[in-house]
Amino acid sequence: MTAYSAVALTTAAIVALVVSAMFVPGVAKVFLLAQAAYWSLSYVARPLVLLWTLPQPQFADSLADPRLANIGYDIGIAEVLKPVVFGLWFYVALVVGYVLFRRWRRGPQERTTIGAAVADPYFFRSLGTIYVLGLGGRFVSFATGNTGSAGEVSSSNPLLDFAATMATVGALGLIVFARPEKLWQTAVLLLGLMGMELVWTVIVESKTPVLGAALAVAVRFALIGWTRGTIIGVLGISAGAIGAFGILQSLKVDPEARAISAAAEASYPPVVQPFLPILRRFDLLEAATDAYYMQGREWISHGDVVKNAFLNFIPSQLLGSEKFQSGTAWADQVRGSSVDMRNVSVSLAEGNISEGFVFGGYAGVAVTMTFTFVMVLVAVRWLLARNFLFVVLGLTLIEYPVLFERGILGTTESIGKSLQLAILVWIVTLLVGEYSRQCAETPPPTTHVPDDISTLDRSSSKGSASWV
């Protein structure tokens, strides 16, 4: 199989995924289409750019992989994409099977209306409260220089990072569920929240916040119904956010680093250069290359996978020890087997296909892709749940890219963190609800009335009584 035939098979699988997703109702369709877009950038656009330009690896250019360049991009990409082709076609088979199962069952249709949690009168007050608290956490993080950056192994200040995440949940919740009465109010709400997430994505040097907000907009319209205008609007917002990301990111870089980056980009054709900042962020092809260079060597045992996936749901404070960090371990042990990572400390996205291939070859890919599809269905159920706790978990699955670029270990890691956040948000919701009820039940101030009303009446009739 040549590199171009591998890319063609990958493209065909993604097209088949898009077609299959059209027969899936509601929010699940949005997730599947988002996966198709995400994986096309990682497994189609990036390989095509490499095959077209054949770039030589150089400093400040993370797009040109030295390992692929050494063995030849044609040979390297053809080999690296083999498990990717299998994984994507297996995923398409899962989606088609789900569609056929729904048609055969002909049972109750999937509920696409919001759950009782959203009908709670204090739901939006709670979202607003946690959003304001989260903005405060973001401001303190930025003011104290603790914002961190993409790929950071551990947060500079976990408490501030935890507080800042509350803003994400509040923003996504308002984007998905808020229903202003007037169109201009909706436009202001969506553009304002999207703008804040774009600013934050530049500050933390990560694509996650703005892409999460764009996905939340798509989920919103999946719940209320699509029109031609909303489709164009979502596509425009997504394209604008992705395009603005590279521009705003360059403003943050100092002149020396900008000059080095410009020199690296100058080796690419001018038509490709505007897309380089975003293509560098979709790096699952590098993870697939990591898995290929493992050459069947064991990373961790199957028992350790199960154990660590379970422990990810238990807070570190209760365990009394540090939990297994899959992104850091992947960087040290998997990528470290083919790239010198001794002086680099970073957390990487391992990818569901790559993780499965390292765990157990093509059988492992089948397991991890099945897990990913199940998580898509779980995310839909959580977003439409009747309990506020599960709604928050669903919102965090919109924010964290676990449905796109993480495997079993990375997904359970994120859900474990989300569970702690959901409990905190639930407590805030209880406090907001109780405060609102206390304010509603407080009687208005009244003038003192004498105990003997009959005396007051008699004296008032004579016009001689006065009282305060």
From TrEMBL:
The chain crosses the membrane at residues 6-24, 75-101, 122-140, 160-178, 183-203, 231-251, 357-380, 387-403. Keywords: Membrane, Transmembrane, Transmembrane helix. It comes from the Bacteria. Coiled coil: none annotated. Residues 456-468 have a biased composition (Polar residues). Residues 440-468 are annotated as: Disordered. This is O-antigen polysaccharide polymerase Wzy. The lineage of its organism: Bacteria, Bacillati, Actinomycetota, Actinomycetes, Mycobacteriales.
